[in-house]
């Protein structure tokens, strides 16, 4: 197969983790005879630096012209202290999500046996945890009207949802539920928020068509506690944009490191793959960032391309690297591997498999 991939490395540790992901992808391409063609584009802080804006039309057009998009990370502390700046790196990501209609964000939370000790949560609570967060990504408070008054004494951010936007994500979640445990947990704040009431109503309607699926309803405050005391209850956790943002960072504590979690964002025209971690500026350029979130995002991409065994192979060798302690210092603080060494290990594993099979 031949695939065109838009590569948006972004800021901070983005280029380093993407570098390793592309090396892994090349090794997979060689082994299975695929051609992956990379189209590198700017986004975020680096784009502001080079073009004056965080997302150019050129980047958008390239993304639209490709089979998929691989993104590293976005954010630069030099923009953080001045909240009034017109151009901020994060706007590039938000605009990209909105413009490409990337509404269905999927974040798998899966515990590795070899990392059970890494989580601050009791082993018995998190053993075998395996759930998916379905986060709405193009609406809600992130994209509603927002303003700070001239006097700077008042501000607002509007949270708005319409039924169509809720339904199209929910249908994805219901379909996924049918292939898994037939259970969805909707996280909301329906005791307070009008948008949450609409989410519940919409889900109940869709449930008529997918009646084998059971829906559990949890308020966000309770859900964030349940995430710690009983995360095994989740299979598909469905929620709106901001709740999903917060819960996915919380869920990463179950897995043991934020650096391990990949994601896909399915859109109307294309799909974007990115690790859920940020740009971790303190680690940038030091060869210490965990590349596995990005590499596992590549695995999600291959699966969506229909390259099942290629995707499974990446998952397998990642698991093996963790088992062998070939991990960056967020996981193996005593004897850490560098970002590149983790990549080397994975590539060697892919090539070794080749020799033994030939
Ligand atoms: C994420 C990030 C983004 C978000 C930021 C960088 C805007 O935290 O993808 O989870 O809040 O969605
Ligand atoms: Mn986040």
Would you kindly provide a brief summary of this structure?
By secondary structure, the chain is an alpha/beta fold. It has helices at residues 14-32, 45-51, 57-65, 89-99, 123-126, 163-179, 194-209, 220-229, 241-255, 292-304, 308-323, 339-357; strands spanning 2-10, 35-40, 68-73, 104-110, 130-136, 146-148, 155-157, 183-188, 214-219, 236-239, 264-266, 271-273.
Characterization of the model:
This protein has 358 residues and is an alpha/beta fold. The chain folds into two domains: 1-105 and 261-358, Isopropylmalate Dehydrogenase (3-Layer(aba) Sandwich), CATH 3.40.718.10; 120-255, Isopropylmalate Dehydrogenase (3-Layer(aba) Sandwich), CATH 3.40.718. The chain has twelve helices and twelve strands. The protein has helices at 14-32, 45-51, 57-65, 89-99, 123-126, 163-179, 194-209, 220-229, 241-255, 292-304, 308-323, 339-357; strands spanning 2-10, 35-40, 68-73, 104-110, 130-136, 146-148, 155-157, 183-188, 214-219, 236-239, 264-266, 271-273. A ten-stranded mixed sheet has the order 2-1-3-12-11-4-5-10-8-9, sandwiched between helices. A two-stranded antiparallel ribbon has the order 6-7. Helix 1 links the parallel strand 1 and strand 2. Helix 1 packs across helix 10 (292-304). The longest helix is centred in the first third of the chain and has 19 residues, at 14-32. The protein is globular, with a radius of gyration of 20 Å. The two termini are 21 Å apart. The mean pLDDT is 96. 3-isopropylmalic acid binds next to helix 4.
What is the count of DSSP helices, taking H or I runs of 4+ residues? 12
* Strand order within the widest beta sheet: 2-1-3-12-11-4-5-10-8-9
Profile the largest sheet: 10 strands, mixed
Topology as H/E string?
EHEHHEHEHEEEHEHEHEHEEHHH
Low-confidence region ranges: none
Classify the secondary structure makeup into a structural class: alpha/beta
The total beta strand count reads 12
CATH homologous superfamily placement of the largest domain: Isopropylmalate Dehydrogenase
Q: Tell me the CATH architecture of the largest domain.
A: 3-Layer(aba) Sandwich
Estimated helix fraction: 40-55%
Radius of gyration: 20 Å
**Would you tell me the overall average pLDDT?**
96
């Amino acid at each position: 197969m031949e695939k065109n991939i838009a590569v948006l490395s972004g800021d901070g540790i983005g280029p380093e983790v993407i570098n390793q992901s592309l090396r892994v992808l090349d090794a997979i391409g060689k082994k299975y005879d695929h051609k992956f063609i990379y189209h590198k584009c700017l986004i975020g802080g680096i784009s502001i630096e080079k073009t004056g804006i965080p997302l150019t039309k050129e980047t958008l057009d390239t993304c639209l012209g490709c089979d998929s998009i691989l993104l590293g990370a976005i954010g630069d502390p030099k923009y953080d202290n001045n909240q009034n700046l017109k151009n901020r790196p994060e706007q590039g990501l938000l605009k990209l999500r909105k413009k490409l209609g990337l509404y269905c964000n999927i974040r798998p939370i899966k515990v590795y046996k070899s990392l059970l000790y890494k989580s601050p949560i009791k082993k018995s609570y998190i053993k075998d945890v395996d759930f998916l967060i379905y986060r709405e990504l193009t609406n809600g408070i992130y994209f509603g009207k927002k303003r700070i008054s001239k006097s700077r004494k008042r501000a607002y951010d509007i949270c708005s949802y319409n039924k169509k936007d809720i339904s199209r994500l929910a249908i994805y979640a219901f379909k996924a539920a049918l292939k898994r445990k037939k259970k969805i947990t909707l996280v909301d704040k329906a005791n307070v928020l009008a948008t949450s009431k609409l989410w519940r109503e919409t889900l109940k309607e869709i449930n008529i068509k997918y009646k084998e699926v059971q829906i559990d309803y949890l308020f966000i405050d309770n859900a964030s506690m349940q995430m710690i005391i009983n995360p095994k209850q989740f299979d598909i956790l469905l929620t709106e944009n901001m709740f999903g943002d917060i819960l996915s960072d919380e869920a990463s504590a179950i897995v043991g490191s934020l650096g391990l979690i990949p994601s896909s964002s399915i859109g109307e025209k294309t799909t974007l793959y990115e690790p859920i971690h940020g740009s971790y500026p303190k680690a940038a350029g030091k060869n210490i960032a965990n590349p596995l979130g990005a590499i596992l995002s590549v695995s999600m991409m291959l699966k969506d391309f229909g390259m099942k065994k290629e995707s499974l192979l990446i998952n397998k060798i990642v698991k093996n690297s963790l088992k062998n302690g070939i991990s960056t210092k967020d996981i193996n603080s005593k004897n850490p591997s560098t970002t590149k060494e983790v990549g080397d290990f994975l590539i060697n594993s892919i090539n070794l498999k080749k020799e033994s099979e030939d």
